[in-house]
Amino acid sequence: MAFGMKRGFLSKAQGNRKSASAERDIANEAPNTSTAVQLKSLDSAVKLDAAFQFSNVCRLYSENPCIFVADDRLPGDAHYLFLPPKNAHIVFVDSLESVQTISKWALWDEPPPSPLPDPPFLIQDCGAMGVGMCARRPIARGELIMLERPVYVSNPNVRIHIDQKAAFYTGALAGLSPTTQAAIAALRNAHPVSDDVSHLRGILLTNALAAKVPHTATPYPALFPYLCRANHACTPNAHYTFDATTCTGYLHALRAVAAGEEITIGYTDLAAPRAQRRAELRTRYAFECTCAACGLPEARGAASDARRAAIGAYLTRMKTGGKVPPGAHRAAVEVLVRAAEEEGLVECASILALSALRIAQRDGDTTSELRLLVDAMDYVRALEGNESAGFLALAERLGLTPPELAAIYDSGTPGSFDYAFFGQLMANHKRR
Ligand SMILES: C[S@@+](CC[C@H](N)C(=O)[O-])C[C@H]1O[C@@H](n2cnc3c(N)ncnc32)[C@H](O)[C@@H]1O
Question: In this protein, which residues make up the domain named SET (predicted)?
Answer without folding.
Answer: 111-268
